[in-house]
Write a structure and sequence with these properties.
It is a single chain. The protein is of the alpha+beta class. Helices cover 22% and strands 32% of the residues. The protein has five helices and twelve strands. The strands form two sheets. Strands 1, 2, 3, 4, 5, 6, 7, 8 and 9 form a nine-stranded mixed sheet that branches. The chain has a three-stranded antiparallel sheet with strand order 10-11-12. It is globular, with a radius of gyration of 18 Å.
Length: 230
């Protein structure tokens, strides 16, 4: 199918009027995996026999889905993580990270992390909504915050966390022909996930899942929404 052509006003309307759901590894489509993620997450209860483990041991995180408002068409800003990081090294991701106690909410966390990682000032971001909560196999519960970014920005990348930042046309993301479903075996299970190949890069895992969710939200008529394991 062809990617839909959306005006800025239509895009904002579709993001602001939706009720977010939940997807990803251990999402509501697979309660067994959800329980396994919680059971595998270590905490104070390991040192205190008899203490009831927390009902939700997933670690809260937030990312920004930055839509750059360019005259020739909107793009999505993504980062490639550095190769030395202990988690998700070298993978393509949205700017973001864990929600800290000092963060007022998920939006504050996403904007703070984005400013720290790529130097994008929060004043240039207009938050317009959020996507479905995404649960990862590594035990994170991610809130994706969608914001429109003024194109007159200059990045200041943190070289410890980010190898590079680049933009992908939103029209490419919205074209379902670019959403390749694949699978692999891990720990005795078959994991099904999306891969979006773009200019020699493979966008996969949670980032691809959130991009597919974005396409579903912006093109509801063509939606084939489902929680896929990642």
């Amino acid at each position: 199918m062809n990617a839909p052509s959306l005006s800025r006003e239509e895009l904002i309307a579709r993001l602001t009027r939706r009720d977010p759901g939940r997807r990803g590894f251990g999402g509501t489509s697979d309660p067994l995996e959800a329980a396994e993620v919680r059971a595998a997450t270590r905490g104070d209860h390991d040192l205190n026999p008899g203490e009831t483990p927390p009902s939700a041991a997933l670690r809260p995180a937030a990312v920004l889905v930055p839509l750059i408002d360019r005259a020739e068409g909107m793009t999505v800003l993504l980062t490639q993580r550095t190769a030395h990081l202990s988690a998700h090294a070298g993978q393509i991701a949205f700017p973001g990270g864990r929600i800290e106690e000092a963060d007022a909410d998920e939006i504050a966390a996403a904007l703070r992390e984005t400013e720290e990682e790529v130097g994008l000032p929060r004043e240039l971001v207009s938050v317009i909504g959020r996507l479905d909560t995404y649960v990862t196999g590594t035990g994170f519960e991610i809130t994706p915050i969608v914001g429109i970014v003024n194109p007159l920005y200059t990045l200041a990348i943190d070289p410890y966390e980010v190898a590079e930042a680049f933009e992908v046309p939103l029209s490419y993301i919205l074209d379902r022909r670019n959403h390749n479903r694949t699978e692999r075996e891990s720990a005795g299970r078959i994991r099904v996930f999306f891969v979006l190949p773009y200019q020699g890069r493979n966008i996969w895992g949670a980032t691809a899942g959130m991009l597919v969710n974005l396409a579903e939200v912006l093109d509801p008529e063509g939606s084939n929404a489902q929680g896929l394991n990642s």
